[in-house]
Request: fold
Amino acid sequence: METRVDFFSWLDYDMLMRILMCLEDPSDLVRVSSVSRSWREFEVGCSKSVEWETLEREHRVYAFLARGCTLFARREDCIAGALSASSTDNYPEESIRNTLEPHDRVLRRASYWSSKGQSNPAVPETLTYKLVADICVITEISVRPFQAFFQWGSPIYSAKSVRFRMGHPKAPVDDPMGEPCDNFADDNFVWTYTSPEFAMAQENRLQKFELPEPVLCIGGILQVELLGRVQKQEMDGLFYICVSHVQVVGRPLSPPFSVEILEPSGKFVLKASSYTPPLLAENGSCPGPNAYFEGPARDLEQILHLLRGEGVVVEYDWNEEDELDDEMAL
Reply:
């Protein structure tokens, strides 16, 4: 400081651009330009550059994403299909697919999934589902244990507690309407969220478990972890877990948004497509976007910070070959 040298004048254009892109708040630009004449001239020269316009366009896309997470109509049927169960006692009579049916009896027959019997009551089970969209906001999940009305005493084969995981597959999964399988390895998925553990009541009812905060599920995979066994079957002395129905409540964000998972980096490409949400367009309160945007890879954590109101730091690698649409209407 004693020499009063503007050290920014020693840096070349590329280095200045890299520094500029690391600043997270516009106020940082003002502070730097107040002590550096060369930086102030550089800032003015770049204020209308393609890089700056791209950052503005990204902000509009993220703002639309945040609005969609809060204003889209809530659905109670966010499960598209059943992928796998950790075990099944009698297939297909007791398949995981039965848990998609809201009633515990269909055509006068019991409808439920049953695990294999275990002598150790601590052995857990898992049920894995594909959601209706690759990007969803999930708020609550409900599970109904099965009561075996055809057995003496009508026992309820509930788990002691339940936990939920969400994430995305490492490779494309089979058609969720196809045949579910057992022992679908967890190594096939990347879990980006794990809920707290919730205690289950030994009652024959749909038990609702509200998540501590809305969860953005990127990848469209939900897993229900059933922890601990309570009921022993009289005929063989083994512990079982049986579930008659699983329900997921949330907001699918497709078709306005879609994602492309980039493995093995754990990042993704966020895409906003031309779409007008019907519920919002009818009253004219919030028209949808009229353009297409495909941004670079984002960290999952950044989107979660945005939804929590903590802001987003966007990683953006721009080059002159990028072609981005100039329009984005909210």
Summary: The longest helix spans residues 50-71. DSSP finds six helices and 18 strands in the chain. Confidence is low (pLDDT under 50) at residues 274-301, 304-330.
